[in-house]
Design a protein that fits this description.
Largest sheet: 10 strands, antiparallel
Shape: globular
Order of helices and strands: EEHHHHEEHHEHHEEEEEEEHH
Length: 326
Amino acid sequence: MPFLIPFPPVRRPLTLALVVVGMVALPLLAGSVAAQDATAPSHRVTNPVYASLVQPAESELIRLNEPRFADGQTAEQQRMELSRVGGERYSIDALLRPSPLAPHVLQMDRQRIDARQATAQRVRVVFMLQGDLETFAQESFLNSLLAGGDDTEDAAGGSRALSDEELQAAGVSRLSAASISEASAPEEPWGQEHYRLVHGELFSRVRFSGVVRSFATRSDDSVLLALRFDERFARVPGLAGVWQRLERDQAGVLRMAERGDFLGGGASIKITRWREDPRMLVFEAELLLLEPQAWFGGSNLLGSKLPPAIQSQVREIRRAALRAAP
């Protein structure tokens, strides 16, 4: 089962992102993760998509928190942060239990945005897992977690990479790690932006499509993937973010009842070395989705579906990491 990343799931109930937007299983990475040496700038400097999510313009509605576990933390600092994450519900020992069934910490909140007739749905998840950071930095393993199969386009689910001509139509040119910072420039063309046109369906109630922009970077301590729906394609026919609310007719056929512009969303996933034990990693993700009120009439349908789906995905990620461990 592919890892469900941030953005609503395809042809199945919404399942994580990091979360993880709902979440769509996508082959977002066509290349390897950008390598950085010990003196390289932080992800915020080398990853433009991540920077746009954690340091947006003041007027931006899509704004994510920085990960709790920062590069360069000592073992003691990591333990203190894990204790804060677990709070009164989970002890450090419980969170560190080397089992796919160990607990994970999930936080969810909703905020009404009256000016946009939408709700900001935020999801944050943190859990520990056994594994090797180098495994997650490998292109083949990342794609095995993120891939949803070969490029396909279907109204109910699928995705494909954008052509250079489609990027040019929106005035977009791909950035690379080398163009962002000379200090982070790898010897090979890694760390390039990727753009995919995504189609998804939620609970046979809503269909959506839009262009997702992603960028992945790595440091000595961590791997980070950031992605967001890109509003620069709003005026490009066939690429603009849109949604359709569906209803069944008397014959039971799904038909469009209402449509609108997709409001957007973003997500980040960070996997960090656990300093006390090189066989352990911290996995944390955050998703923010702007959900139009028209989708589910303002009810918290996504919130009710996410927790069991995320639990399933956490266990699968842990098992996949164990299978891939050297």
